[in-house]
Amino acid sequence: MNWLVFSYSLPSKSSSSPRVTIWRRLRRLGVVSPTTSIYILPAQEACVEALQWLAQEITQLNGQAVVMHVQQFEGLTEQQLIDLFREARREDYVEIKTQIAALEQEIAAQTEDDQQADIQDKLAKLQRQYGDIRHIDYFDSPEGAQVAAQLAQLAHTLAPAADPASPIAPVTVEAYQASQWVTRPQPHVDRLACAWFIRRFINPEAVIRYSHQPQANEVAFDMPEAEFSHTGNLCTFETMLRAFNVTAPGLPLLAEIVHAIDLQDERYFHPEIAGVEAILKGWLELGWPDSVLEQHGLALFEGLLAALSNRF
Fold it and tell me: How does strand 3-9 pair with strand 39-42?
């Protein structure tokens, strides 16, 4: 595995302010420092860019900085390095767990309705903290999954969602492999996820048409009187997953992300939600035609599934 090693020095007469600022920047990047004066990150593109910018800033302060690419360390195995990163993130997650426990006690003791807004603000702050840590959790510290589950449970407690209003009839993939599909134009998160699901798990060459008027031979989804649509508190994507009983690593997490963006009911929290939502909103503002939206949606959800399937 490849690593980045960062080392720097500032003029001896420099004030403490730049030193503190640089250390805070390094800490936000999630560095580990097994020995004095060197800081290590995995050799990911985003890390390389961040360290290069930081080196430039140090040079502008009349200091010196170097970014080195290293394949291995003498006396320090790859697994030992990974364990250093996981331990650093474990400490971050433990701090959030302590705050979660305090918030749970506050919720249990809540007696006034006007306390709800303050509790929601505290939960949102914890969610942002988790997102920041998750961003630098390069090697998936096990505590990350625990914290995500606790935050999701807290959000569910504060905004409980009802169970589906009616059962979802099971269907088979084979029965729909030759189907033609239709949904509303300008597809957003739920319809794009369904289109990806159809091409990923049912028929890669399926005909998917975008129209407000289904034809007699088409299977409609996520539109009025569609064969597949919202069921109770489930979005159409979740309905299809249950109907076809398709399972794959990462797919449940992907469904929760789609649900959160589509229904906005604060039932789930994952750090990817805000980014995916911003991307989808930007696509609509660009005014892309339906075919282009679908093409980009397929790539987006395929990438998300790959990332989520390797998370835990």
Answer: antiparallel
295: part of which helix (H) or strand (E)?
helix 290-309
Cβ burial 222-255 (10 Å sphere, 16+ → b, else e): bbeebbbbbbebbbbbbbbbbbbeeeeebbebbb
Structure tokens at 123: 């939960």
pLDDT digits (tens, 9 = 90+) for 213-270: 999 999 999 998 899 999 988 999 999 999 999 989 999 999 999 998 998 777 777 8
Q: Are 173 and 123 in contact (CB under 8 A)?
A: no
The predicted model scores a pTM of 0.63
- How far, rounded to the nearest angstrom, does the alpha carbon of residue 159 sit from its chain's CA centroid? 21
| Structure letter (DSSP) for residue 114 | T
Q: Comparing C-alpha atoms, which of 36, 58, 39 is closest to residue 47?
A: 39
Determine the Cα–Cα distance for residues 18 and 55; give it in Å rounded to an integer. 13
Half-sphere exposure for 3 (CA within 13 Å, toward CB): 20
Q: Which of 71, 76, 64 is nearest to 7 (CA)?
A: 64
First to last CA, the chain: 20
Domain boundaries, the chain: 3-70, 78-158, 174-309
Question: Residue 107, SS3?
Answer: helix
Give the lowest-confidence range in 94-98, 122-126, 286-290, 307-311: 307-311
Q: CATH classification of 3-70, choosing from 3.30.70.240, 3.30.450.20, 2.10.109.10, 3.40.980.10?
A: 3.30.70.240
Cα 157 from Cα 110, distance rounded (Å): 13
Other CB atoms within a 10 A radius of the CB of residue 92 amount to: 21
State how far the alpha carbon of 162 is from the alpha carbons of 49, 234, 263, in Å: 45, 9, 13
